[in-house]
Amino acid sequence: AVHEAATALGWPVLADPRSGARTPGPATVAAADAILRDPHAHDRLRPEVVVHLGERWTSRALADWLRQPGVRHVLVDPDWRWRDPDRLAATVLRTDPTALCRAVAETVPEPPAGPEWRTTWTSAEAAAQAALATALDGRGELTEPRVARTLFDALPTEATLVVGSSMPIRDLEWFAAPRHRPPAVLANRGVNGIDGTIATALGVAAGRGPVAVLLGDLSFLHDAGALLGAAETSEVSCTLVVVDNHGGGIFSFLPQASRLPADTFELLFGTPQAADVSTVAAAYGARVVRAADEGELRAALKEQVGSPGVSMIHLRTDRAANVAVHDRTHRTVARALAELWAPR
User: Fold this and answer.
1) Could you please report the per-residue DSSP string of 305-320?
2) Residues 18/124, Cβ–Cβ less than 8 Å
């Protein structure tokens, strides 16, 4: 219904992975974060109206783009939850979003936006996706963005992907490419931080079927107690994909990473733990496999997701290298957009 309405209006769909709308199509924009990091995009892609359906992206680049003055925001909020943390909405519609989109698709006689508006977005999305593939795919290293990208691509449609806070949800949002019949994606957002990620995944597995959960080593250790007794039952299928960078990786992207002495930064922000996540998981009875490249990750996902009980796929990464990968990837997209938008 969302894509039908977008076609009728001639508008793009900036599709968060949690929306279920990150599917291939002429309106789909999955690389919005990468595109809107380009300063030229704010002017070239400045909207008049934005309709908000569902939850907000985590992307700061997209949030800054939305805050531009003179943009009218319409919030569709059927549950009256006020999904508008920046208080941008001038109009709030308390209605079912599916019904609204279908009504728009059926009643709009012709797209109010000119064809160049959709074409500009479509061209930027194609250039950004090609650049992301160049930067992330086909390399020997199994980077954190590539782990998220692979999970979204490889999981079966009937599985549910639960995503942890900090970098996992951002990597999935920023780098997962559109796919047909994607898995359902769930994430705890807000003040909860990393609390209860494993407990959430186990609950989802008990109620919905096979689950894979993408989380970091600190999120795993913070909620490892939820595994007590869980690995002994065959009634759930829950696979933990733990990206172990020996600490809190998101803080390496913040200014304090370069302004503090290394030992002070590690003490206050990196917070590496002595516990080995594989050993902890095994102590609770979980099956543990390790993956060092994309082929091993895909093979482990195929074997573990849907199998009874609790399993862990353990991947090791490096926090400093992860920052470099993100920077390199964003530069690759920026070059592609510069070439696209260069005067002819």
Assistant:
1) TTSSEEEEEEEE--HH
2) no
Give strand pairing partners of 310: 238
CA 330/CA 334 separation, integer angstroms? 6
Rounded to an integer, what distance in angstroms lies between the CA atom of residue 148 and that of residue 342?
32
Q: Which two tokens stand for residue 155?
A: 């999981």
Q: How far apart are CA 32 and CA 224, in angstroms?
A: 34
Q: Helices marked H in 46-166 — which ranges?
A: 60-66, 97-107, 115-136, 144-154
Domains, the chain, in order of start with CATH, read 2-133 (3.40.50.1220), 140-328 (3.40.50.970)
For the chain, give the number of residues.
Answer: 344
- pLDDT, tens digit (0-9, with 9 covering 90-100), for 151-200: 999 999 999 999 999 999 999 999 999 999 999 999 987 656 678 999 99
Which residues have C-beta within 8 Å of that of residue 81, sequence separation ≥ 6?
Answer: none
Distance, in Å, from the CA atom of 271 to the CA atom of 292, rounded to the nearest integer, reads: 24
Whether this model's pTM surpasses 0.90: yes
For residue 295, how far is the Cα from the chain centroid?
21
Are 121 and 31 in contact by the 8 Å Cβ rule? The answer is no
Position 204, amino acid: V
pLDDT per residue as tens digits for the range 14-69:
999 999 999 999 999 999 999 999 988 888 999 999 999 988 899 999 999 999 99
Contacts of 189 (CB under 8 A, 6+ apart): 55, 58, 165, 169
213 has a pLDDT exceeding 70: yes
12: left (phi over 0), alpha (psi -120 to 50) or beta: beta
Pick from 1, 20, 39, 7: which is nearest to 181 by CA?
20
For 169, half-sphere exposure in the C-beta direction (CA atoms, 13 angstrom radius) is 22
